[in-house]
Amino acid sequence: MSGITLVNQVKASKFLSGVLQPVANAFVNAAGYRKLGLRYDDVLREETDIIREAVNRLPDNEGYERVYRMKVAFQYSLSHTIATKDNTLKPEDDIRYLTPIIDEVAAEFAEKEDFNNIKSYSK
Amino acid sequence: MLSISSARKTLNLVPTVLKAGYATAVSKTGNGVKVAAIDESSPTASVSLVINAGSRFEPKDKAGIAHFVKNFGFKNNGKRSAFRIARETELVGGVLSSNLGRENVTFTAECLKEDVPYFVEVFGDLVAQTKFAEHEFHGVAHEVASEVSYAESSPEITVIEAAHNAAFRNGLGNSVFATPYAEISISDLKKFAADNFVANKIALVATGVSEAELKNLANTAFSHVAAGSDAKAEGSKYYGGDVRVAQNTEAGHVAVAFQGAAAGTPEFYTAQVLRSLLGGDRFVKWSTAGVSPLSAAAGKIGHGAQISAFNFGYSDAGLFGAAAKSVSADEFKRALAQAKFETAARYETRVASTEILAAQAFQGQKVSVSESLAAFDNVSAADVSKFAAKLLSSKPTTVVLGRTSELPYGDALF
């Protein structure tokens, strides 16, 4: 969410993308969340105000899907297994469905902070 | 939402007649939005966005959608969040309100003259870019539900809504308040807004601003509003009928209404004169001096009785009648008969038109600009009695609310 990022520069440059994209893919596979059937946004820590509000704003069907994926992952965890090759989440299904909502909510919170700290003066 | 008071004027049942009053000062922006302004020399100004999207224009299966639209004013739009609009309004010291009538939904901002450009911009965004976000919908639905429950608990409101419903059925008969069973979704709202927030259904009305300045501001603010089709609304037809609402109220409510006159027509002023002469609301509590026939009758009946006349005018129809609380059928009949007799007598003594206007203002009605004194000067005693006769010839609408087994039927009153 915050921090220095060079994502745009890398995506713009063909050379850098060619070098770094395979590294990124290997990293994501090694992270292993897809082998539990989870998307990246399911793994985000939801115990913060912003992400909790964003999850509340998810459309109903997305919310149910999210809960289902988490249940499946929990079962995998309990049984100390991971998904087979067929059941592993495909890269095209790993959609960042929550990130746009998180950005929206973060903007709203920031706006609220700005207005709470506004300094007014008479002309 | 500290500075938004959407419930403030929800119960203002008297429609503001905006059309005819600004006939001499109405202009249009490039894409057809009507603009009107009165340049008063006061430090404050008020800007109102009037959209022809009242309860009359609700689709048949979406009863109550206009109520939702009213409560969605000043919510998140493409340029500003609802929070930002509220905070910025507070900072400039403005007051926002929204009001729903049978024909129009009105969003108003009262502010200082120098802040008028800001609010015109907000109105432009409201029309063109309101987001209708899903997460806001729950809050709005909650607000709507609480306003509906307030209306249901108020017999006076229920009586008037029932009278309109019986008189006009659909269109003007649609209730201003959402129904408790309304199945409105966010996509329904988006569609209703897309159909009705169009340039030919929008007017921007302001006081304390010059016509030229307002037109300039409107041209920029409403430049992205769709033009809209020329489809005419369905004409209103008066039916009349009986409504009996069973409620466990101590006081019985009875209302009788007839086909009235459309707003802005000469007959409407006759109706206003008749209404003022019948009167009903006492200006000075506990006083019986110089009081109108209906309120005198109510005073005589005692035990909390109240009778008052009403006159609603819409663009192509009207409803004229009297509502009574805590009176028996005989008492009501007698009061109306006496009022009829006294009205003619009173008018002979040339009740001044200013008195009538003052009476309306005092009763808390909005005295519309269109009700200029000249219009009233044209009303003669003959007009009033002719109008009264015409009223009685239309099929009456009777509403009876309370312990209906003890209350009379419509034909017992007439």
Model description:
The complex is a heterodimer of chains A (123) and B (414). Chain A is built from six helices and no strands. Chain A is flat, with a radius of gyration of 19 Å. Chain A is mainly alpha-helical. Chain A has helices at 7-12, 14-31, 40-43, 49-56, 60-78, 99-116. With 414 residues, chain B is an alpha+beta fold. In chain B, a hairpin with a 4-residue loop joins strand 4 and strand 5 (105-112). In chain B, 46% of the residues are buried. Residues 1-24, 348-353 and 363-367 of chain B have low confidence and may be disordered. The interface between A and B is small, with 9 and 7 residues.
Features:
heterodimer, A: 123 residues, mainly alpha, 6 helices, B: 414 residues, alpha+beta, globular, disordered N terminus
Task: Please give a quick description of this structure.
The complex is a heterodimer of chains A (123) and B (414). By secondary structure, chain A is mostly helical.
